[in-house]
Amino acid sequence: MLSFSVFKNALLEVKHNKLDYLFIFFQLIVLSDLVVWFLSDSFLFVNLIISLSVVIHKNKFNLDECIFFFFMFIVVFALIPIIAWGFDINLYGGYVIRLITALLIIQYFRNDFFKYYENSLFILSYISLFFFIVQQFMPHIFNIIDYLSGILLAHENYAMGRHYFLIYFYRPALSLRNSGFMWEPAAFGGVLTWAILFNLYINRFEVNKKLIVLTIAAMTTFSTGFFVYFALILLLFFLQKRIKAIKYYLFLLIFVCFSYSQLGVQDNISMIENKIQNERTRHIYNAQNLSVDTGSYSRIGGFIVNSKYFLEWPFGYGLINTTKASNDLQYLGVSPNSLAKILIQWGCVGIVFMFLSVKKTIMYLKNYYYINVKFTGVAISMIILLGPFIGNPFYRQPLTFAILLLGLFLRNRAVFQNHHKFV
Predict the structure, then answer these.
(1) Over the stretch 130-166, which tens digit does the pLDDT of each residue have?
(2) How far is CA 46 from CA 15, 39, 53, 94, 358, in A?
(3) Is 23 in contact with 52 (CB distance < 8 Å)?
């Protein structure tokens, strides 16, 4: 079995820090967007109370930060959109609850967020590889959890024959791809991308068994987006290891592509090619002409639509209920592209603020682990960190808000020599 000793050590870390891992696993399950009870507006408040309780229990609550953050959001981001486009108390109330919950997650973990996140995703990716193999050869076994799936999943998910038990989601229509604990393979590839990036910094760009498991799990998603992120990860790795000969980089990419072509996954490769072709034709054409139902927009198509809105009003539209809006605004913010969503909601100020926060996060990782990352490496790391937001609708979950905002609240102290590092 692949690196079972490392998996065992990771579980021991969970045993020694039960509450910490219970809290982050809970937020990851919320992030998965699958448990039907967690999809309601009322659960936003439940999550806030749970998060506040554990932060207070650990004596980590900082009221001043919460108050400052709330007023900063209102004044810096929301004031102009509210004046220009109105105020919906339900939408803004829900958004503030998500942001405060994200801040509580940051307050709870602070500097340790990266290692807890990376170790949690390693455990979940290891488990996913086992069930991915089961999915290939004995998918009928998932019928055992049919009753549990009916309890956890929304009706439309359950009615399609899908099975779910918190740590793994089986979709018969995507049986050749690994969805892990997330709602789809692309989303699983996205959260694993962050884990791989954090692992590289934690281990100072040394190859390790956890990195290998995370990468293999991410590759089994056959996500177009992940292969783009992976190419950037390889480039970052080679830059840090001073491997200047591009032929090694190209050879590795060719080897990976050749290996996949020989492993009986032609259907997945064809799927990726078709997705790219669709982006070039139907989705982009429809988006440019605003002539299609909102639910059918792809990532690129949605970005084109929202770019038009942005050029008309670059200061952000805030939170508008598009079902009640005029026909001119009915497509506002419609996209699985999180960056496009932020661009539309908070305009140029929001995008600049987000880039500065992500840069601070990367600079923090660089300084905390004493890694000599040059400007190019920092820029590539920023793109990798932002990449999953481009390809997935990560714009309403507190944990992803926390990842975006981490750089603003981390304490700048470099303690690599005393830092406990997971194997």
Answers:
(1) 999 999 999 999 989 888 988 999 877 877 889 999 9
(2) 26, 11, 11, 12, 28
(3) no
